[in-house]
Design goal:
Elements lengths: L2 H16 L15 E5 L2 E4 L4 E4 L2 H4 L8 H13 L10 H13 L6 E5 L2 H16 L3 E5 L8 H6 L15 E4 L14 H19 L4 E7 L1 E2 L5 E2 L4 H12 L2 E5 L23 E4 L11 E5 L1 H6 L15 H16 L2 H23 L3 E7 L2 E6 L20 H12 L2 E2 L1 E3 L2 E4 L7 H19 L4
Parallel strand pairs: 3-15, 5-6, 5-7, 7-10, 10-11
Antiparallel strand pairs: 1-2, 2-3, 4-12, 8-9, 11-12, 13-14, 14-17, 16-17
Helix pairs in contact: 3-10, 4-10, 7-8, 11-13, 12-13
Length: about 450
């Protein structure tokens, strides 16, 4: 047995015996063993390279193993690996400053968490304490994390096995013109009716009981749902009218993913709280947080905030954040993401839609796109049913397998493929990925009617 095969066996055996994987029936999965990664690629122990069109889980915004960020982590580890969150330390202070400089409006205070779900938990807690109200409104077709409050706020099927029905959460329908819950025929009509529905929900739930409305600025896991122009501004206005805290979940779309530092910049909307994670360190060390407005920060100026984490603002993570943000600034990664979307991914994916009857809709911004796969363009019947599994999900499983066979690692969710490569992906790699997608979509086309 050669060294690579021996290493593969060791990794796979230990994984099978000791690793408990999330969102999985443990005996029904066979995880790929990854030997290494660089840039937009990772590879297995047989040396097969995969072009990563998922950015891991939509977080390697600057690709794998950027030398400036790995060097910054090593330098920080040699200097100071960790210190309690109650101390002032240079890496933490600088990370907070750099993030605050890029948030909109007066969101100048940063509460650090370990990841995105904890950011949502703390944003909700802040909103409830600030307002003295119990309820939080969130959209169907949303994902906010897997911790207690976050999973109850989530509006997709992953909530089902965790829903306590006691979390003070009320769900509402957000706009989605392709599958309009409001029978709208235009984007403007969809926006108007969605806002009317949201206001009705507020009124009938009792505005005096609602602490916050939380929205993904661009819906991530539910399908790269780009809100119509005017919707987020309309939600901001409703929050102002009824004294409700407006929370934007930018965990997946912050730090260049949509071609802006924060996706809210596309619509010039400033929330009261922003949740972030993922791209802030390109995932190199876990870090999340909440950017806090002046009004909410003032609530806790002389009143202790009743929350915290052992590793809040962990110095290795903060050093990674500082390096990542500086790399993005120096190398124009945010601008590159915008150009890639406008000049390469957008046109390329729309060209695929013209050739493949299985593609019902193309939507996205920057380096964050989705193809909605359907059995029929006329009826818009999804290629697989909602929350499909087993045999019902076979068409999407076959499509994903075709992508991997071609050397492309896809992010498949429901009846969609999400296209989320590194924000600094090279143009030739975009072209390569689109070519593999073109070939794999023939598998999906075979299931159309």
């Amino acid at each position: 047995m050669n060294a690579e095969a021996d290493a593969l066996t060791t990794v796979k055996d230990a994984d099978r015996k000791h690793v408990f994987h999330s969102w999985s029936a443990q005996e029904l999965i066979d995880p790929l063993a990854v030997a290494g990664a660089e840039g937009s690629y990772f590879w297995d122990y047989q040396g097969k390279r995969y072009l990563d069109f998922s950015s891991a889980l939509v977080y390697t915004n600057i690709g794998y193993q950027h030398p400036k960020v790995t060097a910054a982590i090593q330098e920080q580890a040699a200097k100071l690996c960790t210190v309690a969150p109650g101390f002032a330390v240079d890496a933490r202070s600088e990370a907070a400053r750099l993030i605050a400089e890029r948030t909109p409006g007066d969101l100048d205070k940063i509460f650090f968490t370990n990841a995105g779900a904890e950011a949502v938990e703390n944003a909700v807690r802040m909103a409830r304490l600030h307002t003295g109200r119990p309820k939080v409104l969130s959209a169907y077709r949303s994902y906010h994390g897997a911790t207690s409050a976050a999973i109850n706020l989530t509006g997709d099927a992953r909530r089902f096995g965790n829903d306590s029905a006691t979390a003070g959460v009320v769900h509402f329908w957000g706009p989605f013109a392709y599958r309009s819950p409001f029978y709208a025929t235009t984007e403007a009509e969809e926006c108007e009716r969605a806002l009317r529905h949201l206001e009705d929900t507020i009124v009938f739930e009792g505005p005096q009981s609602i602490a916050a409305i939380i929205l993904e600025t661009v819906g991530g896991a539910p399908g790269v749902l780009v809100h119509p122009d005017g919707y987020l501004a309309g939600v901001r206005a409703l929050c102002d009218r009824y004294g409700i805290v407006f929370v934007l979940d930018e965990i997946m779309v912050g730090f260049g993913r949509t071609g802006k530092w924060f996706a809210s910049e596309h619509w010039d909307v400033t929330p009261d709280l922003i949740c972030f994670a993922k791209g802030v360190t390109s995932g190199y060390v876990p870090l999340g947080g909440v950017a806090i407005s002046a009004a909410i920060a003032e609530t806790f100026a002389r009143r202790p905030y009743p929350g915290g984490l052992t590793y809040s603002g962990h110095v290795l993570a903060c050093a990674a954040a500082v390096a990542t943000i500086n790399v993005m600034e120096e190398e124009g990664v945010v601008e590159q993401s915008a150009r890639t979307g406008a000049e390469l991914l957008g046109p390329g994916l729309r060209a695929l839609a013209e050739r493949h009857p299985s593609v019902g809709e193309v939507r996205g911004l920057g380096t964050f796109w989705a193809l909605e796969l359907v059995r029929s363009g006329e009826t818009r019947q999804p290629l697989v049913p909602y929350n499909a599994a087993g045999a019902d999900n076979a068409p999407m499983a076959e499509f994903a397998a075709a992508c991997k066979k071609g050397g492309l690692w896809p992010l498949v969710a429901g009846n969609r493929i999400h296209i989320a490569p590194a924000c600094n992906i090279a143009p030739q790699d975009v072209a390569k990925g689109l070519q593999i997608l073109d070939e794999a979509l023939a598998v999906a086309d075979a299931h159309t009617v």
